[in-house]
């Protein structure tokens, strides 16, 4: 019963599979742009934009505009808050599954 | 180049090598160094040629790795971005990370990634030192060295983001036989070996780049 309560208490922003995949990619890869995330996660453009907007609203990712040579580049990276949220989610999930 | 690395971090690091530019640049550096040394090394004694060549090649390695990231970023911005998107390049090795990953039976993926370059370069450097400073330079030394070098590089890189294929290792191993068959002067053997390695790396990098450019047409807009 306690495990069920703990599952309900998981961070739902992180728990969604597509957003979890985005956060895991960014946690290991560092910064990446939209096209890389799209190819790596198999997302459609609209799907990825929607999930990134939710993560940005929660303060878990930072979207930064810069240049690569003369071509504009929009890169996405995890914030400290995002890293903490991902670590907290992993820890809680592992604790639930170990029971 | 086919890369099969399991973690997102491994795939992100492998992405840095997917356009062939890192191999091409290192190959060109080795070719220039060896070509510049070749004409005058034959006029020196074998011992002096070995020592001088080792120091010149070491300086070339250091220069290459001091400026490699900057040059590659610039080339990638002009040639390959934004065809397949952008991801942060693999991090530099922290001091001692290579030793940690070599001493663990299953090193953590991130350490394995970041120590790749330092590991392969240190291996090449060690073999270059042995080849350049060996007493008497017996005829059997080049094939033994190239075979050992090929085996060590293949084993050290097979789980990394830039694995060298078995056929690439076999060609490197067999290259030592050329030195026996052609009975080349002792003084120019190390520089010829470096030239061969540079040619092989540049050819691999050039083919990978051509394939990458052909497979991924340029995009007019940024990747969002």
Folded structure, characterized:
The complex is a heterodimer of chains A (99) and B (224). By secondary structure, chain A is α+β, with helices and mostly antiparallel strands. Chain A has one domain (2-98): Winged helix-like DNA-binding domain superfamily/Winged helix DNA-binding domain (Arc Repressor Mutant, subunit A, Orthogonal Bundle), CATH 1.10.10. Helices cover 65% and strands 18% of the residues of chain A. Chain A has helices spanning 2-8, 12-15, 17-29, 34-41, 45-57, 80-98, and strands at residues 32-33, 61-68, 71-78. Chain A has a 3-stranded antiparallel β-sheet with strand order 1-3-2. The N and C termini of chain A lie close together (11 Å). The model of chain A has no long low-confidence stretch (mean pLDDT 89). By secondary structure, chain B is mostly helical. Chain B has one domain. Helix content of chain B is 69%, strand content 0%. Chain B has 9 helices and no strands. In chain B, helix 2 packs antiparallel against helix 3, helix 6 runs antiparallel to helix 7 and helix 8 runs antiparallel to helix 9. The longest helix of chain B is centred in the first third of the chain and has 34 residues, at 46-79. Chain B starts with 7 loop residues before the first helix and ends in a 9-residue tail after the last helix. The A-B interface holds A 24-25, 27-40, 68-75 and B 7-12, 15, 74, 76-78, 81-82, 84-88, 91, 109-110, 222-224.
- Structural class determined from secondary elements of chain B: mainly alpha
What is the mean predicted local confidence, pLDDT of chain A?
89
Calculate the terminal CA-CA distance of chain A, rounded to whole Å. Answer: 11 Å
Largest sheet of chain B: none
Spans of chain B of 5+ residues with little confidence (pLDDT < 50)? 1-5, 93-116
Defining traits:
heterodimer; A: 99 residues; alpha+beta; Arc Repressor Mutant, subunit A; three-stranded antiparallel beta sheet; 6 helices; 3 strands; 18% strand; elongated; B: 224 residues; mainly alpha; 69% helix; disordered N terminus
